[in-house]
Amino acid sequence: MQKTILAKTGNEAMALAMKQINPDVVAAYPITPATEIVQIFSQYVADGEVKTEFVAVESEHSAMSACIGSCAAGARTMTGTSSQGLALMYEMIYIAAGLRLPIVMADVNRALAAPINIHCDHSDTMGCRDAGWIHIFSENAQEAYDSMIQAMRIAEHRDVRLPVMVTTDGFIISHGMERIDTLPDAEVQSFIGKYDPMMHLLDIKKPYTVGAINLTDYYFEHRRAMVDAQNNALKVIKEVGAEFGKKFDTNYGLIEKYQLDDAELAIVALGSTCGTAKVVIDKLRKQGVKAGLLKIRVFRPFPAEEIARALENIQTVAVLDRSDSIGGFGGPVFTEVRSALYGSAKKPRIAGVIYGLGGREIDMEQIEGLFMDLKAGQVKADSVSYLGVRD
Amino acid sequence: MIEIRWHGRGGQGAKTAALLLADAALSAGKYVQAFPEYGPERMGAPVQSFNRIDEQPILMHCPVKSPKVVVVLDPTLMASVNVTAGLGPDGMLIINTGLDAVEIKKSVKFDGKIFTVDASKISEETIGKNIPNTPMLAALVKITGVLDFKSMMEDTEKKLAKKFAHRPEVIEGNIQSMKRAAEEVKSA
Q1: ipTM, 2 decimals?
Q2: Which is higher by pLDDT, B109 or A55?
Q3: From CA B70, how far away is CA B108, in angstroms rounded?
Q4: Which of A6, A171, A179 sits opposite B31 (nearest CB)?
Q5: Which CATH superfamily does the domain covering B2-187 fall into?
Q6: pTM value?
């Protein structure tokens, strides 16, 4: 199978994946830095390169509402957004998951106002972490492309039937051009297969009600069923990632360990920072420092057991959060990683580090400095600190 | 790995130049990154864009702080922007200016190699517009040897032919501007 090597930005890569998926419906509204995804895709529609019905709506709330309607009608449905756009969808985000609709959404991670800001942090999608969506982060444009294709399979799997968001770091990945390997259209089509919904509104032989009220009688059971679906997704994501690897040579799991097995010091991170951290770790390893990285690719479902196993034998761990839970005890990644380790017999010293809010740069010197601080015992365990902020 | 920083003004094509270089480097089988600095995007405001080119996959996603090469698309920027920031003594500074490189050397605090080429004049004479980015790209490739100049030109011609099939004069103008810039670029 011949892959085509292209220079693509993250947004172009995600739009290309959407083209090759060729969904029945895309409903979307433009927002920086995700605008290009939908703009490029609408060009594919205009040029007749996809058979998609493109619904240009007047807001993101309407975009997700239209997606819910079309997906409930049995159509393979996708969208893309970012930051304030995702915030405006919020009401419908919960409904999409609660109705068990396998919508796939590209989200370019961007800070939330105020102050108004267009740059990367993870606050937007982290704000939806309890909504029931599957949440996949991408280190680079290649992962964004590959994960969009896998997301369709994961979302539509009969044991899952949940919406999936695939994210990239705003501007850093969305607007950065990189080399990516792309698959032939036919291979993508054969990988995702035909969408065969379990139930849909246009199936007149099996009529059903979508969005019925559940009060004290059944609401709890339906929410509990979403938990089971998320737990099933842990297995399904790995299966789909392994099949993708078998066919296209790159394996995907829930987490990625980089120089972690014999590491004494480790950081945990999401997204584009992981690549920068890998370069720092290579340098430190040459100097004899046993440094490692745990990259969390899938934040929902949260792979607590895998994370605990990967980290429990490490001496000192810093968990990097590119979003904060203002007034909470650390960012979302820190609190969940620390909680996952609570039951381990051996626990690392662990600290939370908030960084990069509103696109504040993170460079190799800062990551190296963090490792040096961990080594010197200068990072206080069970504390939360801020990296790269002016006091 | 080679790191490059482009300085221009909004609308001059600093971003496009970085993308073109990345695309040409990709065609030569290399790993590439091209990314702009996003800030207040206005016509005429100082902007920067960046390239990384390597034989190996490029993993880092942090800003370019110590480039090997700096390209200045608009010499008037040098009054307000520190274009040599992070540029080491073994670095190269390539400026679009009608001034002689020896003249420039007197006013720039930089000990490394300085090159000049009047890309604005060249583009006006060949393309008919002040579009300095493609001639500066050619000058950069010629001086640094980061790519094979001949194959880069062939590749660019193919891409232009595809993009401007209905406007052959644009293709010819761009190719001429690139050839001239490569010939006319001078060092101090």
Answers
A1: 0.93
A2: A55
A3: 13
A4: A179
A5: Pyruvate-ferredoxin oxidoreductase, PFOR, domain III (3.40.920.10)
A6: 0.96
